[in-house]
Amino acid sequence: MKSSRKTARIVALLAFCLALSEPMLVSAREVNSSVAACLKAWGNDPFGKNPQFKTLGTSATVFGIGRKAGDTKPTSSPSLVLVNPIINVMGGSTIELLNPNGWYCLRTGISVLGRLTIRVQCKAHLAMTSNGRTMRGNDVGSRGIRDLSVTSVGTISVERPCN
106: which strand partners? Predict the structure, then answer.
């Protein structure tokens, strides 16, 4: 019984946050530490000492309705992208990161009573960071996602399609 009340509270809180539909406020230090952690995980990157990056907004869906972020346009040169948290509650949701020159740094994933799929183009680089821990590349599979995300009777999976 306690578990179902806790889940209901989480769902209500996430629905409330989604209703606000404002971008999450994050400190520059937190953003920079996330990017630094991903760059360290990759080891060898083309971005130099002061990397420029773009940020994808938070992707939040409840019952399949809500704000979905994605990056589907290919670039001619490497593109560093910080992906803010991906949240899915009670439904199915897919985020697409399909730039073959993309270097995607995922901050975290949350799935409550649903299925969250992260599609990353097979040539793109991927790292996920949460709570001071980071995984990269092929390490970010089912096991890695479970270690660095929050799931409650839900699933998070990574697909690597080659387009």
Answer: 83, 128
